[in-house]
Amino acid sequence: MSAPSHNEKDPERVAAGLKASIHNPHVSKEAKDSATHRLDEMAGTSTHESKETEHEHHIMAGYKAALKNPNVSKEAKNHAKQALKEHGAL
Q1: H/E element holding 78?
Q2: Contact 11, 46 (CB under 8 A)
Q3: In 3-state terms, what secondary structure has residue 89?
Q4: Band of the pLDDT at 49, cuts 50, 70, 90?
Q5: Is the pTM of the predicted complex or chain greater than 0.85?
Q6: Does one domain contain both 34 and 54?
Q7: Angstrom distance (rounded) from CA 26 to CA 58
Q8: Same structural domain, 16 and 37
Q9: Cα–Cα distance between 8 and 35 in angstroms, integer?
């Protein structure tokens, strides 16, 4: 997974920081309420999409690895090649 540029924030890291704020005893109630609200807004958005994209990248990497693995059958290599072509990864 590639790191986001310095202008983009990683949603998982943002969520982790918000959760830390919620559980920190030195943070005001207002700040905790704000963090809770932001977490609620983030739920089900880009984090889910990025996990799906990451999963798809892993699948494509597996197909690429299958093409180079001498223990993979010719039929499986043909299937991997076809899947990579369909996804524009070959």
Answers
A1: helix 74-86
A2: yes
A3: coil
A4: low
A5: no
A6: no
A7: 40
A8: yes
A9: 19
